[in-house]
Known about the structure:
By secondary structure, this protein is an alpha+beta fold. It has helices at residues 73-88, 100-110, and strands spanning 3-5, 8-10, 16-22, 25-34, 40-50, 53-62, 68-69. The radius of gyration is 13 Å and the shape is globular.
Amino acid sequence: MSLTKEKVRLDCESCRYCGDCDAGSFELEVPIEDQLTGLKGNARILCEVSATGHRVTLAHFRDPAGIELLLDEGQRQRLESLLHLIAEKKICGNEGLCPKEIVDRVQSSTHSEVW
């Protein structure tokens, strides 16, 4: 299942765990499509999770060939709006959307007081 907000679609079930940053934070990569501009690629996202909340931040965006792209202001704002929704609703780690590895990582992080 994917999430869409402001014509930005994030392919949640295809996200991939990329490793821990520190206690309570990790990076993942997720396919994204901007339906207004046709831009497609993979976003590297920093997820900070704890029992008290989530933060989900864009680290960088790469096209399908792996080349890092700079998003224009509109693309960045719409993507950040979707990431804010994911953090606010604590969607990252949802068993109905995310791969098991991400679900397990989020559950282990939310049981510790990190930030």
